[in-house]
């Protein structure tokens, strides 16, 4: 048992020019202070206390002294030319050493800090120090310091040593045995003279004598409990659980692929005339394939002489051999029609009231496919250049936390933050493995579909069979990479979550939502979808706005005015492009697109008030603009601090709106939902609902001070290792995976339908 001594002093003197100086000399060090004891706050405020109590640095018994003997010298001095009365009281602390799993209550104040000793039991390698208080204020600081004298237990020096965090009602610090060679440490409790550091009121700037406060009553009742943390075996169990949970998705995919292989093998036995390969992108044809076409005909032209209403095929002279793929940079980067003979009638075709997929899939399949592959290669480049600086930055954050001991830098759930190595919250990083594993699995699924589609095309030489949705996999590959990068960047954010780096957690979520919308639009508009360069340039603008929102979005009204104007104008411009099926080029006249929007309103809503020319598109765009304008007004009025989540909400709402419109129009067109996409839709809805439940279980908030954020901290709920936010990571990864599968399989029912029978919406 370690003995400790506490010295209490009191002086009635208020003369700051001649304070009473107390110097305590011990075996291991010297401790000194003055009375009145002065604390300094904001705006040169001073807080003076005439009553001071300090715990002396304890000394363990040596062979030369008995366990209860300590030699202490107390020197009292003052330069005052007159006598000053003071009171000195030395007492022995009865409960200086804290015990495991036993709560201890005490009181502290700015001039009477407290600290206690804790020794690790033999079978405990890590403990969690839980500190609670019924009152949020006064603001306090909890510090863990090594057994070194002197102990830093005043407001101006408590941050000089060890690990510390500010506190209102709750604090929690995880301490590992390996960090303290002596297998013991001090737990220090300091009450701050002001509350602004914990989110309390900021004192006003007042000059003169009023700026000095005497003996302000700032006493706080605290309770400390030290409990053992998890053992190493729990880390192993958590890692096995994380990987095995998502490996089960791989197993399920293998089973589905095997069943599909069996069914495909059976269907391959039928003659060419009724060819059908489910899920591989192969089309079924009951029509003969012409060996040649009339002179002058072009790919995609309607064969008026065909009794079946089918389309003519390209001539053998113009069609390259099956499986050939040129690497021409012109073909890869071209953003214009490669069929000059239809250039003149392209706009006429797209003005038809009832469009079919054959009208918007007239370009060469190989060239369009190469165009969409640029999405994949560009996102890899973006991911590398974006992720490397992020990783470097968060490593720096973690290093600063470890070196300074300031746990107010990062907003963890400290009641469920399990360290590993240099990482303070390994569980928050491990839970992101699902995004990476499922993103890679989605890439494998897309690759399999791509390979089967290529084999079918090579085997039967049916480049020009116009059945089903055109198979372009570039955007799917990009979506898989984006899902993996979301896991990487979310893990980076959770290395040290705070206000400055939250944008890392959301950047690729913007890209995922944007790519999903582009893929959904590309499905029935393959010829007029945005190029990779313009799409990623748009994402770059969005991320730039997100960064500006982090810097200026908290208080600056001008930023919200500018952003709302950009949001509304962008909505109008995009609506006009969608309504006119890309026939109007923004670059031709910057202001012309808005004049065209006015023309749309005039012609379709005034001249033809009964029914617009493109009713379905008009309904979608009206609803979309109402939603986006509502977001703009909401942001302008309320100015949410979490600007990154605000932008993400805009993207997600637009994606959900478009997906709902697409499914409704698909069902209106008498198209079917096959069992696999139906299962994926149900699974997506169920998993997203469960994921959002855990997402809204707020465990920390960098919109508040670190001390206020810790009031929301809660214990682990899964395996004693993962908290609610980790479960959100698991479920959101699965939900995104199922969402991608919905887009991948949604139109599998159209593989046997001619494109001139598939409506565009």
Description:
The chain is elongated. The chain contains 16 helices and 17 strands. A hairpin with a 4-residue loop joins strand 2 and strand 3. The strands form 5 sheets. A 4-stranded antiparallel sheet has the order 9-17-11-14, with no helix packed on it. It folds into 3 domains: about 200 residues, Sandwich (Jelly Rolls); about 325 residues, no CATH class; about 90 residues, no CATH class. It is of the alpha+beta class.
Quick recap:
By secondary structure, this protein is of the alpha+beta class. It is 42% helix and 13% strand. A hairpin with a 4-residue loop joins strand 2 and strand 3 (30-35).
- Placed side by side, the strands forming the largest sheet appear as 9-17-11-14
Strand fraction? 5-15%
Query: Gyration radius, to the nearest Å?
Result: 35 Å
The major pleated sheet works out as: 4 strands, antiparallel
Number of strands: 17
Structural class: alpha+beta
Helix content: 40-55%
Give the distance, in angstroms, between the N- and C-terminal Cα atoms. Answer: 80 Å
So what's the overall shape?
elongated
Give the low-confidence spans: 268-344, 583-591
Number of helices: 16
Compute the average pLDDT: 80
- How many domains comprise the coordinates? 3
């Amino acid at each position: 048992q370690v003995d400790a001594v506490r010295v209490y002093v009191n002086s009635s003197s208020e003369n700051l020019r001649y304070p009473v100086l107390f110097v305590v000399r011990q075996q291991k060090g010297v401790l000194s202070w003055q009375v009145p004891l002065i604390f300094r706050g904001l705006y040169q405020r001073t807080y003076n206390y005439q009553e001071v109590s300090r715990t002396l640095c304890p000394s363990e018994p040596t062979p030369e002294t008995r366990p209860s003997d300590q030699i202490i010298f107390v020197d009292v001095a003052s330069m005052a030319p007159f006598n000053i009365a003071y009171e000195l009281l030395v007492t022995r602390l009865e409960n200086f050493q804290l015990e495991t799993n036993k709560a201890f209550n005490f009181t502290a104040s700015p001039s009477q800090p407290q600290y206690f000793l804790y020794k690790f039991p033999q079978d405990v390698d890590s403990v969690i120090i839980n500190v609670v208080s019924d009152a949020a204020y006064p603001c306090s600081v909890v510090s863990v310091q090594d057994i070194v004298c002197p102990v830093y237990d005043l407001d101006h020096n408590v941050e000089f040593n060890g690990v510390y965090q500010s506190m209102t009602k709750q604090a929690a610090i995880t301490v590992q045995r390996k960090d303290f060679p002596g297998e013991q440490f001090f737990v220090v409790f300091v009450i701050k003279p002001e509350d602004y550091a914990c989110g309390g009121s900021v004192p006003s700037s007042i000059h003169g004598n009023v700026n000095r406060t005497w003996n302000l009553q700032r006493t706080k009742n605290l309770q400390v409990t030290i409990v053992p943390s998890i053992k190493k075996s729990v880390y192993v169990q958590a890692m096995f659980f994380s990987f095995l949970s998502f490996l089960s998705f791989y197993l399920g995919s293998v089973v589905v692929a095997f069943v599909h292989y069996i069914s495909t093998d059976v269907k391959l036995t039928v003659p060419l005339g009724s060819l059908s390969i489910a899920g591989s992108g192969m089309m079924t044809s009951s029509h003969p394939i012409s060996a040649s076409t009339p002179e002058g005909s072009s790919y995609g032209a309607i064969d008026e002489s065909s009794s079946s209403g089918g389309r003519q095929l390209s001539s053998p002279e113009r069609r390259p051999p099956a499986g050939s793929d040129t690497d021409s940079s012109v073909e890869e980067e071209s953003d214009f029609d490669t069929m000059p003979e239809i250039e003149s009638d392209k706009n006429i075709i797209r003005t038809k009231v009832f469009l079919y997929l054959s009208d918007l899939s007239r370009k060469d399949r190989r060239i369009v496919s190469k165009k969409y592959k640029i999405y994949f290669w560009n996102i890899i480049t973006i991911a590398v250049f974006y992720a490397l600086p992020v990783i470097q930055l968060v490593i720096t954050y973690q290093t600063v936390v470890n070196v300074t001991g300031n746990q107010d830098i990062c907003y963890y759930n400290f009641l469920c933050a399990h360290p590993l190595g240099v990482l303070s919250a390994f569980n928050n990083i491990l839970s992101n493995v699902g995004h990476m594993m499922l993103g890679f699995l989605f890439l494998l699924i897309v690759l399999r579909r791509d390979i089967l589609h290529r084999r079918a095309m090579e085997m039967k030489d049916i480049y020009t069979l116009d059945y089903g949705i055109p198979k372009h996999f570039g955007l799917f590959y990009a979506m898989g990479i984006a899902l993996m990068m979301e896991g990487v960047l979310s893990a980076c954010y959770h290395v040290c979550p705070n206000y400055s780096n939250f944008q890392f957690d959301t950047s690729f979520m913007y890209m995922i939502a944007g790519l999903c919308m582009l893929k959904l639009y590309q499905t029935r508009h393959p010829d007029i979808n945005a190029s990779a360069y313009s799409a990623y340039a748009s994402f770059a603008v969005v991320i730039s706005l997100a960064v500006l929102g982090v810097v200026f979005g908290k208080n600056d009204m001008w930023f919200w005015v500018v952003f709302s104007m950009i949001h509304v104008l962008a909505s109008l411009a995009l609506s006009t492009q969608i309504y006119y099926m890309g026939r109007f080029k923004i670059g031709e006249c910057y202001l012309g697109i808005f004049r065209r929007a006015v023309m749309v309103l005039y012609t379709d809503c005034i001249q033809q008030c009964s029914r617009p020319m493109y009713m379905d598109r008009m309904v979608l765009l009206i609803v979309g603009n109402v939603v986006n304008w509502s977001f703009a007004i909401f942001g302008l009025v309320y100015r949410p601090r979490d600007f990154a989540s605000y932008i993400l909400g805009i993207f997600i709402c637009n994606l959900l709106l478009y997906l709902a419109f697409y499914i409704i129009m698909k069902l209106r067109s008498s198209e079917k939902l096959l069992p696999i996409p139906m299962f994926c839709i149900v699974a997506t809805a169920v998993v997203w609902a469960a994921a959002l439940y855990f997402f809204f279980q707020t465990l920390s908030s960098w919109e508040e001070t670190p001390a206020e954020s810790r009031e929301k901290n809660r214990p682990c709920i899964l395996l004693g290792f993962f908290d609610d936010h980790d479960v959100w990571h698991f479920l959101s990864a699965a939900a995104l995976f199922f969402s991608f599968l919905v887009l991948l399989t949604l139109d599998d029912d159209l593989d046997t339908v001619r494109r001139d029978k598939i409506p565009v919406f």
